[in-house]
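Input for the complex:
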Amino acid sequence: MLFWLVMPTITSAADTLTIYSGRAERLIKPVLDAFTAKTGIHIELLSSGTTELVNRMKAEGDRSPADLFITNDAGSLELARTAGLFRPLNMREVERAIPPQFRAADNSWIGLSGRFWIVVYNTTLVKPDQIKSLVDLSDPTWKDKIAIPNAGSEYLQAGVSVIRASLGDDHTKKFLEGLRDNAGTQVYQKSSQIVDAVAKGQVALGIVNHYYVYRHLATQPAAPLAVVMPDQQEGGMGAIMNVAGIGILKHTPRVENAKLLVEFLVAQAGQKIFADLDKEYPLHPEVKADPALVERKSFRAALVPLTKLAELREPTLLLIEQVGMR
Amino acid sequence: MIAARRLAVSPLQLAALASAAFILLPLGYVITLALSADLSVWHRLWTTRVPELLWNTVSLAGAVALLTLMLGVSTAWMVTRFEFPGRRLWEVGLVLPLAMPTYVLAYVYNYLLGFGGPVEHLWQMVAGPQARIFSPQSFWGVTFVMALDTFPFVYLLTRSALLSFNVSFEEVARTCGASPLRRMLFVTLPLLRPSIVAGVALVILYVVSDFGAVSLLRYQTLTYAVFQQMTGRSDNQAASILSILLVILALLFLLTERWFRRKSRFYQTSGRFRAPQRIQCKWVHTAALTTCLSTVIGLAFGIPVSLLVTWSLSPEALAILDARFFSFVWNSALLSTLAATAGVVVGLPLAYLASRQPTWLNTGCLQAAYAGYVLPGPVAALAVLVLFLKVLPFFYGTVIVLIVAYVLHYLPAGLQSLEPSIQQITPNLEEVARTLGLTVRETWRRVTLPLIRNGVIVAWVLIFLQTMKELPATLLLRPVGFDTLAIRVWLEASEEYYQLAAPSALLIVLVGLPALVLLLSRDWRAA
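Predicted:
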């Protein structure tokens, strides 16, 4: 009994990997299970909030039991990198599979899948041509009709960072104030909750990551949901892109196993599982996205590099707080 | 002689001091963090978020307190003063909601009362297709859910006070010609006041520190905001500033409560004790009482549990019942047992000393113990994390870290029951035992402990139940691969996977039931 109390609960067996994951468990566990089935390497998964896990890894330092960190935001990955938590990787498989704009400069984190911040709307309440740009959402005509993520969500922070970089602080502030007023109390913790609210007609539209919409449609094809890929108009900033990715922790003694996992995830087969299961855009150029999704070649992404998200974040947070978003 | 006596108590004193110091450490850490924040951070928070958060928190606590006061006292009155068929069943039934975590109730009602949910459908059949019912994601929704879940605190303490209530007080009043209403208002209720206040105090502290329900119902309180600040940003200063506000709020409240209790302390001075005679009910009264009680229990326990059972039997839910799932059950039960035991061991010296030797030091130690309850769960967890990493790195990543966080957070719940149970025994009994030649240790074993045993049991069970349901600290501190049932409910329910969250939620309830039975065991009279 005493032994059990005092001993850390994870065994440091050679064929085990410990992963901190900021992604919804449902979106990542099947992929990891496929890895275990293939290699026999057992995986201990700790699912929690992204920023919360970065904080935890920072506090734990060298004592962290984590071998890898998987999460849904390039900004958080870059933050972890600048905090010196990651180990740079030299792997030909990665260089071949993932284009350089989706990786850290030193390959200490690697993007695995792409996601876009889109507008989801209820087809019985909104006409598709009513929205062209995210900025339109701050228009008073949408008062009490919008659902938005809370101020702590990383993709809100990343999205606002890109808007700031594209349009400047003043415009962004006006946009946020409008959004805050239009959303009222419709501020949600999870994208799935926003999609649900839009599907039920509780709100007319919402801002979410695209794949939550397609996941919802996959289980409930009759839901009155549709997607606007925003800011594609002439001179518009382009859709806001982020990646989910992975980093290997600096102090891990299980580098070889960790590399095996990364290899598995960036290879065509791994990317295919991601694409099919999660409805994200695979980053491997030769893997196709789910046919239900908007064709990737048919729209533009905003030009702000993912590696800049981390340095943009602090002033973005300040702005979000100044505006008083929840 | 005096020196010898001092020496004899000193281990107890030391233990109390040590626990108080340990409990204060996290608070100290948070205060330091908050004070080291730049003034502009304070200013920003104050001008943007604080007024709303403060108002939301205070008004919610007030509304829930009022509602639980009414629910708790009236139900306690019904089952202790009336005799009717099924009374014993209701007596037990009213405690059941304690096994139901607030966030489970929140997620059930989110579904039931939510937009496009079954209740709304029913209502629209009656009142037309555009009709809306009140949203669970509103002030009244949160109040409703919280009150349904926490009224048993008031009920339990009031009931036990009513049961151990010496009826001779009322008889004296009657012989003096007081009417039943006057007797109730001027004799019974004032005598019950310490218990009622203690119950409402538990409720308020619970509401103020709740994280799970408010986040599922998207109602912004200080604790929720603290969690958001902590998990959505990479610095914890803003979180610690908001925590300080919470601490001040809770301190103000605790001081008020102390003052209430100071003014009313009663001792049972003679061995003569008679429980009040119950009023025999006719069938009309029985029907009325049964309707009242079944509505309350149905809303707080029956409906949610039947829904959880239905969900748990769905194919999606049955698919997750594997070995992994049962490890969550084991983790939860074991953690709660350890935390409850540790809580009682730490709490007893504190409560005893403060009650028997109320020096400023001892009372101070006791008050210090309340720090853990006013410190929001997420922040207490962060402080525990940092302190362990700095002071006792060897234990980091073990279950001990979690248990420390639990004891820190739930000790006050235990103290709320340990304290009155010690206060109710007159010190004379112990003094007599000592004069008759018993040593301090023997007095404890043969006189004090048997008399407070029930208080100890209640304290243990309360801590056990609350640990079972605990969320934020577990979220932040759990070792890898050590999920609890509460974590599973949280992970699934926050993604609106109602069916998948149900088995874990149901099990939290089921594991809590034996503890509740213990709480209600036949010989239990004092809390």
